[in-house]
Amino acid sequence: MEQPIGKTRWAIAEGYIPSWSNGPDPEMTSHETACLLNAGDRDAQVRITVYFADREPAGPYRVTVAARRTLHVRFNELKDPEPIPLDTDYASVIESDVPIVVQHTRLDSRQAELALLSTMAFPAG
């Protein structure tokens, strides 16, 4: 059996979803995404908690990443238990019951010359 890759706890210290975009929906909608990779043999039960500067955290938001699959979670689309507020700074902690890999991606299309960035999340455990 192969050694699983990834960690069970990750942090993304930076998040922000603009309230408007430039370009066709949904492809060019400004968004933040957590790209989750489960290279293991068991489904991953993932919890996302979102932290703010001036209020209590939101969540947990729950998603399942099937074994040997990837799932791209747009924070814009998280609705339960509440939508992520737009035009608001936030951070997130992502916890899984099996090791996963997390990458953070942002598309900011407020200008026609859009900005796309991607970085690895912080592996916390």
**Residue fraction in strands:** over 45%
CATH homologous superfamily title: TM1070-like
* CATH architecture descriptor name: Sandwich
CATH structural fold name: Hypothetical Protein Tm1070, Chain: A
Helix content: under 10%
The number of distinct structural domains comes to: 1
Structure in words:
This protein has 125 residues and is mostly beta strands. It has a single domain (7-123), classed as Hypothetical Protein Tm1070, Chain: A, CATH 2.60.290.11. The chain has no helices and 8 strands. It has strands spanning 7-15, 31-38, 44-52, 58-65, 69-74, 90-108, 115-120, 122-123. Strands 1, 2, 3, 4, 5, 6, 7 and 8 form an 8-stranded antiparallel beta sheet that branches. A hairpin with a 5-residue loop joins strand 3 (44-52) and strand 4. It starts with 6 loop residues before the first strand and ends with a strand. The model has no long low-confidence stretch (mean pLDDT 84).
Short description:
This is Sensory rhodopsin transducer. By secondary structure, this protein is mainly β. 0% of the residues lie in helices and 54% in strands.
